[in-house]
Amino acid sequence: MQNKDKNNFVECDDCSMNSVCQPLVTAKQSINLSESYLHRRIATKTNYILFNQSDPLTDIYAVSSGTFKLCQQTDDNTENIIGLRFPGELIGEDALYLKTYNYTAIAIGDSSVCKVSVEQMTSCGQLIPEIQQNLIELLSRQSYVRQRNFQAYIGKKSADSLLAAFLLNIIERNASYTGSDTSIELPINRNDIANFLGLRSETLSRVFSKFQKDQLIQVKGKKIVLLSQDKIIKLADF
Questions:
Q1: DSSP 3-state assignment of 96?
Q2: Which residues in 120-147 are b (16+ Cβ under 10 Å) and which e?
Q3: Cα end-to-end span (Å), the chain
Q4: Contact between residue 15 and residue 88 where contact means Cβ atoms under 8 Å apart
């Protein structure tokens, strides 16, 4: 597979938001109400905050380029990274139930998003029931994606298994965007990866070195290439 230009936007057909962005086609006509509630490809810079934890719900987002980390503040003011969102994936959709955001969403590097106003989409949905049905389809798809991502890490007890699962997971999630199913440029630094996986930074560094020594991966700056995908899969217990 050929790598795509990293500045490209994810294709709309590969985006989770697609079901609520497209014109509604009926027997007689095509109706496009998405312009009433959708803002496409809003550019964001490094450390830009889409919303903060506990803010009231206003919008849901789809990443169109770049990466976002989801951070949750605990009662003792510890910041934990609880998720990553890559091109084509949704951010903030779980707040549709809670009515407040459950985490802070922060851009990693130059990124962009498509934004849907929940209030305006709901109003359009009252006029056109198909919009509500498409929203349900969107949420069902994202729920499936979240469940798969959760299963990628559940039961992993060793640092080796966690890192193997992490690499496979993010490569798979980015494959349609990057054009590669065996390599990726790490979108976050190793301290953030350690935070996300619940490991000490020293432990993560040791496992990276071990994987290189065993010729499981090749590291060139931020680029990671899987040299032995079968062994990585076995380590991750996928």
A1: helix
A2: ebeebbeeeeebeebbeebbeebeeeee
A3: 23
A4: yes
Question: What does the DSSP 8-state code read for residue 187?
Answer: S
Q: Could you give the number of structural domains in the chain? A: 2
Q: What is the CATH number of the domain that holds 169?
A: 1.10.10.10
Residues 16 and 127 reside in one and the same domain:
yes
Pairing of strands 38-44, 104-117: antiparallel
Which of 152, 177, 200 is where one domain is finished? 152
What distance in Å separates the CA atoms of residue 62 and residue 212, rounded to the nearest whole number? Answer: 34
| Amino acid (1-letter code) at residue 53 | Q
Q: What is the domain-level CATH number for residue 115?
A: 2.60.120.10
- Residues 123-166: pLDDT tens digits? 888 777 777 777 877 787 777 777 878 888 888 889 999 999 99
- Tell if the pTM clears 0.85, that is, is over it: yes
Instruction: Classify residue 36 by its DSSP letter.
Output: G
Is residue 7 in some structural domain? no
Domain check: are 18 and 49 in the same one?
Answer: yes
Token pair recorded at residue 91: 């951010």
